[in-house]
Design brief:
This protein is α+β, with helices and mostly antiparallel strands and about 130 residues long. The protein has two helices and nine strands.
């Protein structure tokens, strides 16, 4: 008999003390992990804001080369995540946060185009 139970999310084997450990169980678990890990496809990047600190006018477009399913932008060195981050999720948001997904790129305006280094994390659609 192989493992007595499996994990809730991925069905990976969980052995009890009296369970027989089988090589096939490890191979199956490794195949599941390989499949799940191959779906974690993301890009970490950055850009320099081209606007001015007191002027929300102006924007710039950052090319990703793929349509993101999730995009998070932070200003590097910001003290408060609540005041210094925006979250955009496909489909496009309405632009009120200053961050707009535009197909294979995103446009930053206002705060997200102010001087300084901005960092983004973008997940590819699977």
């Amino acid at each position: 008999m192989s493992s007595s139970s499996q994990t809730a999310n991925y069905g990976l084997n969980q052995w009890e003390a009296d369970d027989q450990v089988l090589r096939e169980d490890f191979n199956r678990d490794n195949a599941i992990l390989e499949d799940r890990l191959s779906r974690l496809d993301f890009v970490l990047g950055g850009y320099a804001g081209t606007g001015t600190a007191n002027n929300s006018a102006g924007s710039q477009t950052i090319q990703l080369g793929f349509v993101p399913s999730l995009l998070i932008v932070f200003q590097k060195g910001a003290n408060s995540v609540n005041n210094r981050a925006a979250l955009a999720v496909t489909p496009d948001i309405n632009g009120s946060s200053g961050l707009v997904l535009t197909g294979t790129s995103f446009r930053v305006e206002g705060y997200y185009n102010q001087p300084g280094t901005h960092v983004y994390l973008a997940w590819r659609q699977i």
